Amino acid sequence: MRKIILTVLGILLIVASxxxxxxxxxxxxxxxxxxxxxxxxxxxxxxxxxxxxxxIPANGNLTAKRRFELYAEVEGIFKPGNVLFKxxxxxxxxxxxxxxxxxxxxxxxxxxxxxxxxxxxxIMADLRLDxxxxxxxxxxxxxxxxxxxxxxxxxxxxxxxxxxxxxGRSIVSNYYNVKNLEQRLSKYVIRTPFKGILTEALVNxxxxxxxxxxxxxFIDPSVYEMEVAISKSFAGLLQVGEAVALKNLEGxxxxxxxxxxxxxxxxxxxxxxxVFIDVQDENLKEGMYLEAYVDAKDExxxxxxxxxxxxxxxxxxxxxxxxxxxxxxxxxxFSDTKVVLKDVxxxxxxxxxxxxxxxxxxxxxxxxxxxxxxx
Length: 375
Hints:
One of its GO terms (molecular function) is efflux transmembrane transporter activity. By secondary structure, the protein is an alpha+beta fold.
């Protein structure tokens, strides 16, 4: 009985092994399924070359085109005036900015003028006798002489004898000494050279002012100037008087300036050239930071694309018969986000957005508006 059971189990084991072997052989010969090809969808544009204006972005700070730094050339006490000497104070043209106590020096000037007058009066009798032909003009000069006004110019010498006579009495040297003193006396009062505003006040009324001391700064707020640095490659394209678009940092305000000067030398370190832009607007203040957009030139037969579409090899992706390919291009100008290209044939279908892991030969499908509506 035991032998019969073992014999049956053996037969069953052999049969099971046969079917298992057959199953493994059948599965080994089955064809593996082919993985479907993945076609990537890309955004594309059709090229149409046109004239692209090249705009050079730059930035800088505004400074007053006309500014007047105040320095003392004499010494004395700062006398109070009708208008307080404070930053932000506005003045008219010719108005007194600073008046320094000059009573002592004024007396010195008056004494010198009196000596000149006396020295001329002392020779009048000799002039009447020896030079009667010139006596009238010197008499008229004395009558016009006013100690409280600027010393009038000496009469013209009509002969060498008259010149020797007048010079020998030290009248000419005394005259120029008086004019020198009057010139220095005028430095005790500083007047505004133009209508403007005081932006810096370094002294107060009643303080002692010393010779050579800086007193403040005065500017004309009607015209400002901005200095920007432009690549030397555009130096020959910029022209004086050319309009320039300006914006503040926030981009909320726009202004229009014009190129007033272009430096004739190139900075050896940065290889840039200085360009100065004039701008006028009542809302502008000195020190404001503005961005300028200078129109350099118009590039014909060119296109403008995003910088991230240009490959390191100076190539861009194009689509040809649903296959991705690359073509060489010629970059002309780079801005912060854009690049101007040439040598791109009209009608080329170029990729408009960056492709992750893109390569020449990749199967792609151009995205259309119809697909967008269907989705």
